């Protein structure tokens, strides 16, 4: 099994981990607004030092390929590319939704629909549905959630988790078919099985041309011209 550096900057959480076999050798996580550009490099250095693993020993770099924060994803991907080019190693891309799902299923295994969620502001999230057997049932998509969203999925319990799920606690209060697992955020510590399988199958991305999947186009909002007010 491979020695893989995993970077996840899809949300306001910036995290770095080194995976080897079925273990996480070292891990760093910082949850601060706009900390990625300032802290990511030092996080990588700290984790490598803790694991006594120089970057030259890393066999691949895995990075969150979206969805998530436009700026966060770009910082993570550009950092991963730099390490890959400098050390002539391949790059893996994995969805933070998929790695969150792998973690939750290992902790709360049951016959259910699993909905990892990344916050997309207001009542919208980025999500996909996974089943107990590891199959992705829907494409990754933006979803505006209300109290009736999961009515057509009520043949099984629906387990919601991720930084996008916490805001729906009141919405589904008293709904027996919806369970919300709080305080689970995307993390580079998740996804070891997915990463190792991708490496084993040589499921690498083109380092030079890879771009994360933002789901939505980035929109720059121009400030209002005060002279027009």
Unreliable residue stretches: 218-222
Report the total helices. 4
By CATH, the architecture of the largest domain is named 2-Layer Sandwich
Number of strands: 10
Q: What class, by secondary structure content? A: alpha/beta
CATH superfamily of the largest domain: ATPase, nucleotide binding domain
Give the overall average pLDDT.
91
Dominant shape: globular
The SSE order reads EEEHEHEHEEEEEH
How far apart, in Å, are the first and last alpha carbons? 62 Å
In the CATH hierarchy, what is the class of the largest domain?
Alpha Beta
Tell me the helix content: 10-25%
How is the main sheet built? 5 strands, mixed
As for the CATH topology of the largest domain, it is Nucleotidyltransferase, domain 5
Keyword list:
229 residues, alpha/beta, Nucleotidyltransferase, domain 5, 2 domains, five-stranded mixed β-sheet, globular, Gcp-like_dom, tRNA N(6)-L-threonylcarbamoyladenine synthase activity, acyltransferase, EC 2.3.1.234
Explain what the structure shows:
This protein has 229 residues and is of the alpha/beta class. It folds into 2 domains: 3-95 and 186-200, 2-Layer Sandwich (Nucleotidyltransferase, domain 5), CATH 3.30.420; 97-181, ATPase, nucleotide binding domain (Nucleotidyltransferase, domain 5), CATH 3.30.420.40. Helices cover 24% and strands 24% of the residues. It contains 4 helices and 10 strands. It has helices at 36-51, 70-87, 96-107, 192-200, and strands spanning 3-8, 13-20, 23-31, 60-64, 91-94, 113-119, 124-127, 141-144, 158-161, 178-181. It has a 5-stranded mixed beta sheet, sandwiched between helices. A 5-stranded mixed beta sheet has the order 8-7-6-9-10, covered by helices on one side. Strand 4, helix 2 and strand 5 form a beta-alpha-beta unit. Helix 1 (36-51) crosses helix 2 (70-87). The longest helix is centred in the middle third of the chain and has 18 residues, at 70-87. It is globular, with a radius of gyration of 18 Å. It starts with a strand and ends in a 29-residue tail after the last helix. Residues 31-145 form the Gcp-like domain. Pfam families: TsaD (PF00814).
